[in-house]
Amino acid sequence: MADVYLNGNFVGSVEEARSFIEEIKDLRRKGSLSENINVYHEVKSNAVYMMSDAGRARRPLIVVKSGKSLLTEKHLAQLENKEISWHDLVRQGVIEYLDAAEEENALVGITEEDLTSDHTHLEVSPTALAGVAASLVPFGNYNQSSRLIIGSKNQKQSLGFYATNYHLRLDMDSNLLHYPHYPLVKTKIHDIVDYNEHPSGQNMIVAVMCFDGYNMEDGVILNKGSVERGLARSTYFRPVSVEELRYSGGLVDESCVPDKDVKGYRSEKEYGFLEGDGIIYPEAQVDEGDVVIGRTSPPRFLNSLDEYNLSAATRRESSVGLKHGEQGTADFVIITENEEGNRLVQVRLREERIPEIGDKFTSRHGQKGVTGILIPSADVPFSTTGIVPDLIFTPHGVSSRMTVSHLLELLGGKVAALSGRFVDGTLFDAEVETDLRKELLHLGFREDGTETFVDGRTGKQMLAKIYVGNMYYLRLRHMVANKMQSRARGPVQLLTRQPTEGKAKDGGLRLGEMEKDTFIAHGASLLLKERFDSDKIVLPICEKCGLVAVEDHYKNRKYCLMCGEDIEINYIEMSYAFKLLLDEIRSMGVYSRLNLMNKY
Q1: Which fold would CATH assign to domain 2-124?
Q2: Fewer CB near the last or first residue (10 Å), C or N of the chain?
């Protein structure tokens, strides 16, 4: 006897589990049962689980009987002539959807040649094993699985041509690549998803070699000449918006150039880009501190007399300006209303981003790296045929990661560029490496993809042959300009009086135990005195009882709440966070005494 469960609920028992499951599958394929039902036999506990609940991940597979696929050439011809559709194949029981549980009882063949009498299903296409982003990686089946996943995730962070109406949109922080390319080494999925409508990378000439150690630890080296000619150049857009809020008593915010009598008035220079309506004019070059949208608000707190005399209350300044380290060009101004009917002013700022040291690049194979240096084009190594690489990639990145597809794409890209065609690198269905090598030899190059290189600085021929080819490289959205942060003294938190956290709040950089060790190792231990003083406080401590004493500046007297006056008080330096801890301990009724001793 086998117990039967439907969506986790016990519904009964059957004598023979296998024949029951076969009957369920047969009824589903005939259309008598819903195609949404999946059935799974748990052999160990001899239980049958049937699932029909929503939210399961299911995928289509071709049904196999007696080692033969039910999808025939006739079906394919009918599909091409549009006589039948996909849904007809599902209704006929040629294709069925399996969930993760039922797939445990299935043996799925990758290709028709793999099928044996034990197989129950066949993949619709071998590419279906991977998702859309992973299928865009060429020669993906030559790759280590974890790198394929990283490669698919990296493509989602790349800069490209994300929308054709970008000039009308006010997206939060969007990037636009200036000269996007369609990849020379593509897959069939590139055609299916219309990749040429929204490309997100550029075909670069890549040499695999070391250059003065600037590309060690996954770093990449860029040709400065290529960058100056527009390689990987992009524009960064971000919006600034101001809402004119309504307050009780008929008071409202107002977009304008603030008058000098407004509370918190900045300076004339900071309001210099504003027009009469208090909004910046398009194409104005703004820097940190400059006001983009001028605004005044009613005073925050009205006392009882001001409530009757609203004209006497001075308005306060609440303009929106650029924060520390921000700059850009006013690109687009829009005046509209939001859902509440309040006036909304939005300004989009534009900033050209030229690749610099610290910007992130990646191939489609999970080989991500940060720009280590930009070499002047005169110093870049070049091949004897006169080819100068745009990017120099480290050879150490391939051996341990086993991304053979990275090397194959270099070879395929070279063939594509020389023969004037696209090379197909579809998962499990790519062009064969030996054919690509033969074609490269036929085109007049060495079949292994290497070339003789000359050092650009000395003019001497290099001893080793350098592997070089064309590759689709992506520039990622992680740029130094967005992440660079520094501060001296600045805002502190109200509770602990320690520096605020995060770039947006002009926060400090935390110095932990390990950072402390590096300072000491560099012989700069005195720096710690300055680093750990961020929340220094000097407190009067009673010598007798060891509690915090009171210092009354108005009456010019010092006393202890426990011992009274005429006691000896000493001033002790400590961290404000420690003082806070003492206060909290004391609040629980614990006597936190400080035993004072002389320093010497």
Answers
A1: Hypothetical Protein Ta0175; Chain: A, domain 2 (3.90.1070)
A2: C
